[in-house]
Amino acid sequence: MDVKDRASERSVDTASQIMLREAERQGIDTAWDRLEAQQPQCGFGELGLCCRNCNMGPCRIDPFGEGPDQGVCGATADIIVARNLLRMIAAGAAAHSDHGRDITHALLLTAEGKSGGYEIKDTAKLNALAAEYGIDTEGRNKEEVAGDLARAAYAEFGNQEGPIRFTRRAPSKRVELWRKLGIDPRGVDREIVEAMHRTHIGVDNDYVNLILHGLRTALSDGWGGSTIATELSDVLFGTPKPIKSMANLGVLSSDKVNIIIHGHEPTLSEMIVAAADDADLIALAKEKGANGINIAGICCTGTEVLMRHGTPIAGNFLQQELAIITGAVEAMVVDVQCIMPALPDLAGCFHTKIISTSPKAKFPGATHIEFHEDKAFDIAKEIVKAAVENYPARNAAKVKIPDEKMECMVGFSVEAIVNALGGSLDPLLDAIKSGAVKGVVGIVGCNNPKIQHDYAHLNLVKELIKNDVLVINTGCNAIACAKAGLLLPEAADQAGDGLKAVCRSLGIPPVLHMGSCVDISRILTACAAIANALGVDISDLPVAGAAPEWMSEKAVSIGTYVVASGIYTVLGAVPPVLGSANVTALLTEGAEDLIGAKFAVEVDPFKAAKLILDHIMAKREALGI
Ligand code: BF8
Description:
By secondary structure, the protein is an alpha/beta fold. It folds into 4 domains: about 5-60, no CATH class; about 75-235, Substrate Binding Domain Of Dnak, Chain:A, Domain 2 (Up-down Bundle); about 250-400, Rossmann fold (3-Layer(aba) Sandwich); about 415-625, Rossmann fold (3-Layer(aba) Sandwich). The strands form 4 sheets. Strands 6-5-4-7-8-9 form a 6-stranded parallel β-sheet. The chain has a 6-stranded parallel β-sheet with strand order 13-12-11-14-15-16, sandwiched between helices.
């Protein structure tokens, strides 16, 4: 296969294809090459049938029924698959929730006057959340209220008994069901610890019981850790409003210092954006021969500043290596999550500095400048300065920035959607009832080199809007859509007549960008508000979820809490559960009776769209609309 064909097989994104060809020309390996080198991947692992939970193992179950059907301890395929899945959920829930905890910490420091540069930006939201928590606001300043809110949220991570406050946004029928099933989550940390306990050798050996705890752990993420991350970020950094920006590798500058912020927690990216405006640092950049400082994002931390400041976004997960291969990145500043350990070696082929910042996430070969919220702005300036000082090392002969960039409109928080609708959800409800909008689908999740980059994301979205389904999105799906022009009001031209008319009258895109992956909590909040307005459960709504190119453990937790919240969810990559027919049947069939929603797996985005449309039409019929 020639170089050109291989690049276009790997990605549908032209900028990525250009960089993949460049990588190939320079003999540089990327995630796609490493995936090829892994072939054939472990069949036991793919099916979820290997167990390393104790040192009598590792054990594996023969899926063909010819070898062992139990591990040394007697664990069956059902137990091993369910335990492995629960551990994936726990890891994903831990990642999101620890992010939420760090935001809470930053809010507390700010409230106590000890933070290094943050301020409380959204007092209206602070007061609304205080009311939700029963915190008195009367005659108190915002720091006092924020301090109480942060302490209350902090305490929820370690709650021994529930409920987690934000779970009570869900319709009472849903909460009742969680209670009946024994999965109403208690504290976030408790559920994650219990997941690890249950999956230790010789503890929980009932696959249904294990999966039920998986639902509870995931719920503590979605309605707990992730919602806390979203809501307190809004208090601290501002609730997103629609804003225009640019997306794709073409946002990198040929004559400015390019700093890429990559990772997840806006505590860091907010400050890097602020530090890049510092007059002394801009002067230093000019002294070094650059025409200024250009910040661009990759992944969710990029999304956080994209939607709050209009900072351009350079790409999604699979573009992190490609950005470095442009040869034009002075520093890639990373914190936690979705950062490939391959980056420092790759950066070594260029002048790029990888700057790690979190004590939780060190990368051999990177420069470590540890970030602490109490000295946030000063450390951010130090990081930006390190990038600026690296500009003279840029080798012009190695610079290849693709031209591709696309305008996008982002920042549709729930508050912004309500605002766009004129102050209430009613116009959306009316459009759903009339059939102009058939339903609403949240499309989220990663890239995965097993799937042609962005292909499944874009085709699923296009197919749904064509059929009058409003799409709301986050994370790497949102970035894919931004690059493809789907986050523009003009994209309504690609929608069916009903959705097109609604979008035109409101001046909104047919695909609404709701933020980063923790902001899937905004989707839960929106679904809860719609269900409450209609007096039904979330599982009654003509809504669905999809993760067409997912790969991370966080995505497993997300999919699980979305289903546990009553939302049918279609995955575009097969999760490692097929080794147990019972677990697979529980997730794809039995869950419907248990929790009112289930998973489906469909790798073809056109078939996935059909599944979702059928589901939406069935829900509409049941509602009599
Ligand atoms: O949290 S969608 S690849 S960037 S895990 Fe990661 Fe997946 Fe992207 Fe953000 Ni989410």
